[in-house]
Amino acid sequence: MSRRARLLVPVVLLLVGAALLWIASRMVWLDVAAFNDQSGEARRALTGAEWQPALVPLALGALAAIAAVALVRGLAARAVGAVIALLGMAAVALLISSVGGVDAERVHTVITSDEGVARTNAGPGAEGSESIPEWSRITELSTRPVGPSLTGAGAAALLAAGIVVLARPARPVRRDDRYVTPAVRRGTGGEPRDGADGDAGRDLWSELDEGRDPTG
Hints:
The chain is mainly α. It has 8 helices and 3 strands. It has helices at about 5-25, 50, 55-70, 75-100, 105-110, 145-165, 180-185, 200-210, and strands at about 30-35, 40-45, 135-145. A 3-stranded antiparallel beta sheet has the order 2-1-3. Helix 1 (about 5-25) packs antiparallel against helix 6 (about 145-165) and helix 3 (about 55-70) packs antiparallel against helix 4.
């Protein structure tokens, strides 16, 4: 894998993973209907950010990892790859918790809390204007597959990015001797350093440093 590919492949995967997780956080995951004797039935649609609040931080973490991948090299890059893989595993954990049976008690807590989806500023008669008291009971609960599917795809992208960085980290940049100072480039007594006798490029630099035309 070329040096450019070592950088571009994980960066693209991280961008894709972050985008998928953010989109998943905006999608509706659950449709809920609750009923109580005083106000009757109320319905709520829970988005990924409301049902799985960790989705947005994971997406932001993937974006932050892009800068780390671009800046670090060698062993530090492997450490970044491990962190990226952990982000992917966290996204997988969110997916697993969503694929199984939905916790009705947790849904009840979310829709009857004092913040977020339980609050409403809608006027009377507007959609979603009904408040949901704590004594309401859930009568309907259905899931939508798009949000979890996007989460799974985003988790796969993060895991792939982490594996690429772990297996093929960007190599440290080597200093080019041709761009060091003449004093460092030459050894004692004005002689070239060890192993430099046959370096034609370095001889040209030496000629220029001495004020001579190497093409003459």
